[in-house]
Design brief:
Elements (H helix, E strand, L loop, with lengths): L33 E2 L12 E7 L5 H20 L9 E3 L9 E7 L2 H8 L14 E3 L8 E4 L8 H5 L3 E5 L8 E2 L2 E2 H6 L12 E5 L13
Antiparallel strand pairs: 1-2, 2-4, 3-4, 5-6, 7-10, 8-9
Length: 217
C-alpha cells in the first residue's frame, strides 16, 4: 500500500505532517523531513514501506518518531477515537545525523520485510577534506592530527579501497557491542584499546574521485 504523506517546511522547528498535529520536534534549526513520492491526497497507511528523505541533523530515530506520531494522529481522527492508536514503526538502518538520503521506514507488517528490500549494493556520494584526522572520523570531531604535505589521491591509493576489504567500524557508530552502542562507549573515553571491534567484510564495487572544479584566475 502506498502513501503520500509529506512534512511541510518551516524555519524552526520543522512542522509535522500537514494532515496531523505536531509532537515535540527535533532540536532546531532543522530542515524539513519529506516522505517520497511527493504529496497528493493524504492516506492513512496501515502497513507497508515508506522511503523517507532524511535531512541533515535529524537522527534516524527522529524520523521514526515523526512518522509514528503522524500516522497515529491521523488514525485517531479517521477512527473517531479519543486515544491515539499504537502504530508500529521502525527503520531499516541507521543513517548518521550529518548524512542526507533515503531512510527506509517500515510500518506495521512492513517492519518484518525491510531486510529483504535492503539487500544488494548501495551507492554513496561524499564531500571530504584531506590533510587532517578527527577523533570521530568525520567533520564534527576534534582534530587530532594534521599534515602539511600535499596528499595526492593516486590510482594506487584508491586501489587499496576497492574490492573485498575488511573494515573496522569507527568507534563513533551505532553498532552495538555487548548491548551498547559504540558511540556511547566512545563518549565515555573508551577506544579500540578498551573495546574489541571485529572487522567486517565489505566489498567496494566502484570508487572514483571526480576532478576538482576549475577556478578562474
Amino acid at each position: 500500500m502506498s502513501t503520500s504523506f509529506s512534512l511541510a517546511s518551516s524555519p524552526s522547528p520543522p512542522s509535522a505532517f500537514t494532515s496531523a498535529p505536531a509532537k515535540p520536534s527535533p532540536p532546531s534549526p532543522s530542515p524539513p523531513l519529506h516522505l517520497l513520492p511527493p504529496p497528493s491526497t493524504p492516506n492513512c497507511l496501515v502497513s507497508g514501506l515508506v522511503p523517507v528523505l532524511k535531512p541533515a541533523s535529524w537522527t534516524s530515530f527522529d524520523c521514526v518518531a515523526r512518522v509514528r506520531s503522524t500516522l497515529s494522529s491521523e488514525a485517531r481522527v479517521r477512527l473517531g477515537t479519543r486515544k491515539r492508536p499504537k502504530v508500529k514503526v521502525g527503520h531499516g538502518g541507521t543513517l548518521d545525523p550529518m548524512a542526507t538520503g533515503v531512510l527506509v521506514v517500515g510500518i506495521g507488517k512492513g517492519t518484518r520485510v525491510m531486510a529483504d528490500h535492503l539487500k544488494g549494493p548501495k551507492k554513496y556520494e561524499a564531500t571530504f577534506e584531506v590533510g587532517y584526522t578527527t577523533d570521530t572520523l568525520d567533520a564534527e570531531g576534534k582534530v587530532t592530527n594534521t599534515t602539511s604535505s600535499p596528499l595526492v589521491l593516486s590510482p594506487s591509493i584508491l586501489d587499496g579501497f576497492r574490492g573485498p576489504i575488511m573494515q573496522v567500524p569507527p568507534m563513533y557508530s551505532a553498532i552495538r557491542k555487548d548491548g551498547r552502542r559504540l558511540y556511547e562507549l566512545a563518549r565515555e573515553g573508551k577506544g579500540y584499546s578498551d573495546v574489541v571491534v571485529p572487522a567486517r567484510p565489505v566489498h567496494v564495487h566502484e570508487l572514483a574521485v571526480p576532478p576538482p572544479p576549475l577556478h578562474p584566475n
